Every structure is written in structure tokens, then in C-alpha cells.
Amino acid sequence: MDRLSQTFSALADPTRRAILARLADGNATVGELADPFDMSLPAVSRHLKVLTEAGLIERSTEAQWRRCALRGEGLRAAADWIEFYRRFWEQQFDRLEAFLIRNTPKPAKEKRRGRRSR
Amino acid sequence: MDRLSQTFSALADPTRRAILARLADGNATVGELADPFDMSLPAVSRHLKVLTEAGLIERSTEAQWRRCALRGEGLRAAADWIEFYRRFWEQQFDRLEAFLIRNTPKPAKEKRRGRRSR
Questions:
Q1: Hey, is the C-beta of B11 within 8 angstroms of any chain A C-beta?
Q2: What is the complex's ipTM, to 2 decimals?
Q3: CB-CB contact of B8 with A12 (8 Å)
Q4: At what angle do helices A14-24 and A41-53 cross, to 10 degrees?
Q5: Cβ separation B92–A70 shorter than 8 A
Q6: pLDDT tens figures, B12-25
Q7: SS3 A68
Q8: Would you call A118 helix, strand, or coil by DSSP?
Q9: Is B95 on the interface with A (CB under 8 A)?
């Protein structure tokens, strides 16, 4: 699988995204990561393997502890890919905004004019 | 599957990303989308189904033609999700930049000093 597909595939799971969100708060051991998920260590380890292979986390061993750290760099290509399409959702927002401006009566302006003519 | 997982899962395939890139240039029929991929119409249709279900494209029927259009809005949540992690790859870049600034000799400055003392 190409690297970008691997990244998106790793992100296509709510538990893996939650693990990344937890690591955004600081490094953690596998046990600390497993804790909030009510999940077995082997199940968490499988998710960590997917995240490691996609380059989204790094694992190191300190004494007997296996620590995990977020690897932000691993998200850059996916962010760049999506960024190219930003104009498409912003265009849609611009069209909605233009529609609302065209179709919203302007009571404030009318009031001011009214005051001036008094 | 939750919507965000569905989006990332749809993006985890190079052919589907290429279809989105083609649609970024303008709407296309299923035949036009199939053309550059040397792929059967049913195979392309399966990819289009995944993209439609993830809310990334829209399909409409004009006369006998089935037209596909990019739905940029469908990428917004994925972009927002990734955006939260931007600081992590920018931090890594900042650290590299700081390292390079600290460890790069500044020949230009040295030269100027040399001239002044003459």
C-alpha cells in the first residue's frame, strides 16, 4: 500500500484517532493508552502496530516500559492532500454566504435612512 | 462506521483519490472517469459507490448520462481533524530550523567585521 493510503487507512478508525488524540497530550505507555478504552493489551497493540507502520507514532523502550509518542510529521502529506481541496468547501460556503446576503432584508439600513429623513 | 472513519477509509485508495483529483477539474461521466484508469466500468462504479456513500461526490442523471461532481464539503471534517495536529509537524520543523540556525556558520557577518577592522 502507498504511504498516503496507509496514513488515511490508519486514520479510518475511531480508536486509533483517539489514541493519537491522547498522545497529543503527551507520551504514554501501552498500558496508559489501553486504560480508557476498556480494551485488551493485544487489541491496543494491534492498533499501535498500524499507527507505527503508517509513521504516525514512534515507540521506544525506557527501562521495561514501552513508551509511545505522536509523530506529527506523519500527518503532513495527508494534510497537504486535503488542503488542495479546501477551495471546494470554501466555494460552497461563499455561495451560501452570497445567497444569504442577496436574500436577507436589511432592516438596519432602512431604519437609519428613516431617521435621517425625519 | 462513523462518518469521519468513512471519509478516511474512502481516501485510503489511490484510484479513489485520482477520481477526486479528476473531478476537481470539472464534472465527468462515469465513462470519462473510467477512461484514464484502464479499469472496467463495474470496477469504477464500485469506487464511485464508496465515494458517494462517504459524501465525497454527488451523482446526477442528465438525459441518459450519469454525471459525477466533487462534493468538497465532504472533506471539511477530515481537514479539521488533521488541522488540530498541525502544531506537531510545525514544531518538528521549528526544531530543525532552530538547529540549523545554531549550527550554521555565518561567513557573511565575519567578512563584514573583517573589513571594518582594516
A1: yes
A2: 0.78
A3: yes
A4: 80
A5: no
A6: 999 999 999 999 99
A7: strand
A8: coil
A9: no
At residue A89, the 3 state secondary structure works out as: helix
pTM for the whole structure: 0.78
The alpha carbon of B15 is separated from its chain's Cα centroid by a whole number of angstroms, namely 13
Element (H, E) at A36: none
A88 and B82 within 8 Å at the Cβ level: the answer is no
Transcribe chain B into DSSP letters.
--HHHHHHHHHSSHHHHHHHHHHHT--EEHHHHHGGGT--HHHHHHHHHHHHHTTSEEEEEETTEEEEEE-GGGGHHHHHHHHTTHHHHHHHHHHHHHHHHHHS--HHHHHHHHHHH-
B23 touches chain A (CB under 8 A): no
pLDDT (tens digit, 9 = 90+) per residue, B41-86?
899 999 999 999 999 999 988 767 789 999 999 999 999 999 999 9
Q: Do A75 and B83 touch (CB under 8 A)?
A: no
Question: With an 8 Å Cβ cutoff, is A85 touching chain B?
Answer: yes
Selection from A75, A3, A53, A16 nearest residue B12 by Cα: A3
